[in-house]
Amino acid sequence: MTSYGETAAELFGNGYNCAQAVVGAFAEAFGHDAVRSMQMVQPLGGGVGRQREVCGAVTGMCLVLGMAEGNGEPGASNKKEIYEATRALCDAFRTENGSILCRDLLGFAEGEKGGDPEPRTERYYKTRPCKELVAHAAEIVAAYLSEKGLL
To answer: What's phi and psi for 76, nearest 5 deg?
Structure first.
C-alpha cells in the first residue's frame, strides 16, 4: 500500500503544485472529489500564488486537518482544538525543515516573489526540495490523523 507521503510526492512529480499534492493525496479518504479539491487549492501553490509566504505543502496539510476534523457550523465548538492541532502540525514541519515559509525553504530573500511557474523538468526536480516537502507534510498529518483514529 502506498503511503500518503508517497502519493503526495507522486502527485507533485506529475505536475501538481505543493498544496494540490498534499490535499489530493487525502481528498478521497475524506469523501471529497480529488479533482475538485485540487482545483480549489491551486491558488495556494508557491506560498500562496507564488508569493513565497506559507509553503503550499503546509497549507495543504492544514486543509487536510480541516477535511478530517473541521466543523462547518458557525461558532464551531472545536475551534480551539483545531487551532491547537494546526499549530502542532506546523511546529512539527518547522522543526524538521527549519521553516514553514516557502521563501525560507527555497532560499529566496524576504519579499522576493516567484515569477511565472517553471517548466517541470528533470533539473527542476533536482534543484527543489518541494517533492520531499510535500511528502513530509503528508506524513505529518497522516501520523496525527492515524493517532486520533481518523485514518
So the answer is: -45, 135
Q: What pLDDT digit, counting tens, does each position of 3-48 carry? A: 999 999 999 999 999 999 999 999 999 999 999 999 999 999 999 9
Spatial distance between the Cα atoms of 27 and 30, rounded to a whole number of angstroms: 6
38: Cβ–Cβ under 8 A, 6 or more apart, which residues?
A: 16, 20, 23, 24, 27
Q: pTM of the entire structure?
A: 0.93
Cβ proximity of 67 and 30 under 8 Å: yes
The pLDDT of residue 113 is above 80 = no
Q: What is the mean pLDDT of residues 122-133?
A: 89
User: Which among 22, 7, 66, 42 is positioned nearest to 117, based on CA atoms?
Assistant: 42
Phi, psi for 54 (deg, rounded to 5)? -60, 130
Summary count for the chain: helices (H), strands (E): 9, 0
Do residues 111 and 47 lie in contact, with contact meaning Cβ atoms separated by under 8 Å?
no
